[in-house]
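Archive entry: two folds, one per protein. Generate the first.
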Amino acid sequence: MCCTASVINTDHVFQMLKLRHRVYFALLDVPADIRDVIGKTRLSKTLETSDPKLAEVRHLKQLSIWKDEFRLARLRLPEYLTKANLIAKTDTEVDPADIKQVLDALGEDAALKFQSIATKQDVVLELNVKDYINQLDQVQSSKDQVERDLTYIIQRFPKLSDVSSKNIRKWVKDAREDRTDNAIARVLRTFRKFINYICYKFDVECGADFTVPKFDKVESEPVSRTIIEPEQALKLYTAADQRLKDFIAIGAFTGMRLGEIGNLRVRSIITDKQVKCIDINGEVKTDCSIRRVPIHRHLLHVIERLVSGKADSDYLFDLPRTGNRPTQVVGNDFSALKTSLGFGREIVFHSFRHSVETQLLRAGVDAKLADQILGHKTKGSSEGVKTYWHGHELIDMKKAIDTNIDWPKLAVQGLPFDD
């Protein structure tokens, strides 16, 4: 039996990339504090490859997934706190028998916490995030950002009693180790609004100072995003797994955003006026993003393969749909892949979108037509192109796409989306 291993010890958590029977496996020890929640002491998953470079990329991806699971496990609250929060929210009188039940089962500390929450002396913040987000009058993508920000900061402030000016200043200092100043300011503004909601809902007070600090400007080298050249696209495509290959192919030949690709369903593939199109009409960034994009001739049988055997309502891609951003795992995959191949911060998945726009404009395609393909607000127009039928005909868009969006290095290699 062939068995080799690469061991990493980060944050005192055992991580291993191990070769068994010519196939690499990812292994990770579960931290002691959440083993009861996870139900295991060590996690193991096959990476389905014997290639060490590809295994390393998939290993990083799997570690990211597992660490997200660990984070969520730590946010799961005991049932008795959920019950106490419900009592407080509904202004129900606290039953002494409930306190005694918690005391007998879990001890004095748990009973005191139960009483504190139920009588509104304190509030468990995580239990009220969903209610807060549901009452927001915002588009779903904005609500998703609010949820991510609150989930991040509530790890530090699980209860209202933890929120003080001193603790917030300390959080800001610590957060600067892995967050930009702009991100910290956004999270802090979101948290302030959430705490105001908590104070109103539970009729409590919080005297913490949420003033966004004036950060000292830190000189950093700006990152200039660039387009992806054909040679780079080939390198990325060749090293990607099949799912990421398909995302790259669609992005390279349509200019669609990562989230738009991830939300495609079988019913998104339509034929309009004898032109086969991708109908983008779900959760979109702006009204201008609602559009129909003709499918490039090199992309047709990739799309046909992805829809084959699926129901009309099925998604084209099997992604985790329980989180806020289903395509985050794909973004992580792309980031890990491009880093492993030596690409810098200037290359991101969105670079394919910039590349498509650049190819169209360099070929002399009308700027408004290019905007319509990409779902941009039309330059020089206050209204923009809000739906496909207000702009160019689909046949004109199809001609512009087939003629001018070109990845010759990919076609030379005879990859699946070549004719």
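Generate the second and append.
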Amino acid sequence: MARKDLLNLFNANPPPEELLAPLFCGREREMSLCLDTLASRSISSEILAVYGETRSGKSHFVRVALKQLPAREGSWRILTINANNRGAARPVLQDVFDHLWRVLREVQPKVPEAQRAGFDAFVADQDLRQRWVAGEHVETSVEVSAGRTETVELGAEAKASVFGAKGSLREEHRRGESERRVVRAPSDADLVAWVRDLLSCLRDFESERPVLLFVDDLDLLHRRGVTGSAASEQLVDLLKPVAEHPHVQVLVTIRAAYFNGRDKDFHDFIQLPLLDDDILRQIYRRHIEVLHDGVEVLSEEALELLTQGANGQVGMFLKMCRDLFRWGYQQGTLQEADVTRFIDHQLRQLRLTPEAVSFMPAIEQAIREGRLSVRIDDDLQETPLLHSLLHPVPGQRGVYLLNGIWGRALARGEAT
């Protein structure tokens, strides 16, 4: 049913679950390939990569596919982890452990009675591990006095050996008049081993339902959105031994620039090309029908301008639609002249920012020379012009392409 939902209208991020399918357009060939491959439940020991340019709709694509999977042949345990802006590999790996631990608790009541005692012991040990992973009870201490020191192994080996699990935490005892206990937090290697332990247990009791682990925006782990940071590299290294487990398929979304030349790290699964202008127009229509009660926001001429300026990037297109909609709210259907006035307004605002002092001269020089590309060595991650006025050139650090409609506004000299 048509309705007005201004909160989600032209939202450039993946929509809420109930809107994933209604707002999805195009990519029929890629979607069929993705669904047919995953529905077969053949598992690769490599990390499957869905890749494409920045803001090309990778996250939305995969989330729509995963939502459709349960209705098709085959059954997966689908776990979704968002790596975007997490800052480090460790929190993502902790999330993987936590999700699997919750699945283990869900499976527990279904275990046959004859195996319940061993399974319950394993679960109890995983509960302890979960608290360590979450940072609970990592260190306990009382007053320390002189005495001898000994180190012993802690973990799940004794009670859960029937499932082949082995703990690797160490506890240090200092004995004398008083005692201090320090339980060292698990290393990354420990955590990977624990994730594999959980997968092995689930395989024993749910062999017909392997785990599909989806890690979204793997290459944007850095807190400032830097593609391919050291944290992302570390996460890839940690996920490789997880992906080698026979009960899991690891699936990630990454940018094309990060994927290129990484054939030893990823399986080339789905490449998402930039969208044609016709598909962008369909996406606009879908948003109007589903979220705006069919009431037009843009004239045909205004819509044409925005599709041309989006360079096939659906996320960029939706962001421009949203920014223009907010600027011209309650002004009726926005015309081509309104788009021009909006961009001029944005440029005037941009010139008032402190960052413009350093990067606007280079942009203006490129405009005067008729160039579409510009080199800017400043960090643009926290400026409003990235992916609006400027688009980064993949594989060329510091080189950007000028957005055509913004560039024309600068050339007119009206935004002074």
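Annotation attached to the second fold: The chain is about 45% helix and 15% strand. The longest helix spans residues 113-133.
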